[in-house]
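Bench notes, afternoon.
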Amino acid sequence: MDSRRYINTHKFPISNTLASFHCEEVRIHKISLEKEDTVQSVWKRYLYIVGTLLILDSSVLASSDGRGQRMFDQNIKKACGLNGIMVARSKTQSEWTSIYEENRLNATMLSLCPEAKPFKEIYLQDVYAYMKTYAKDSGVVLGAC
């Protein structure tokens, strides 16, 4: 039963005071619930965005030398039989960096193996990471356990 209707129908002398007090209490409680919902929704959105960025950063946006090796093996090794590590060791890290920054990675690979298909744009960063990881001056020791 609505207390305001009950008070108004029985005409108590303090009915307006009680009704206004009850309405004010309900309004304050409603505002506090709305604030809690807003804070919770902001936190949920924040956590969702941060989680999405962490997943994207680790799986999609980061270059992978393992994926680069796979792409190299599928394109160059299949077509010409070249060893990826030997190709990577033919240049220093700075040379691979300048080749990649000047967008000459596909041209360099095709000059080594003209029968191969050029790499797709999405894999160039991975192939570059692979070449740079195993470059002449990379410090990677092959065959070490």
